[in-house]
Amino acid sequence: MKVWTRIIKGEKILKDNVSPITNLDIDSIYSTLESICRILDEPLPIILNKHISHLNEFSSTTFLPIDFVEEVGFNKMVLEIFDETSKK
Questions:
Q1: Which domain covers residue 41, as residue numbers?
Q2: Cα 41-5-62 angle, rounded to 5 deg
Q3: Do 30 and 47 touch, CB atoms closer than 8 A?
């Protein structure tokens, strides 16, 4: 599995990253997101239960500026989980 992270302002993707993720438990999500935020040079958001449940249920979640302790210069951070081995 991999996670595609996009930093979006308006309708424009400012930054993105694709990173591997082992599973969708809180520890894996936190450590992967911490690594991604370091790579993208963005603050780490506060991960709530709704983010975990959205990832597990919909394979996607969105962090808004209110989910960050620090002020951010974008409208949302979107995480989308995908399996590159699955066939269409």
A1: 2-82
A2: 105
A3: yes
Q: What is the pLDDT of residues 25-37, one digit of tens each?
A: 888 889 999 999 9
Summarize pLDDT for 16-75 with one digit per residue, the tens: 999 998 888 888 889 999 999 999 999 999 999 999 999 989 999 999 999 999 999 999
Residue 87 covered by a domain: no
CB 47 within 8 A of CB 29: yes
Q: Is residue 88 part of a domain?
A: no
Which residue in the block uniquely carries the two structure tokens 């969105």? 62
Best CA proximity match to 1, nearest among 86, 88, 83: 83
The whole-angstrom separation of Cα 9 and Cα 2 is 23
Helical H segments across 1-88, by residue range: 26-40, 49-58
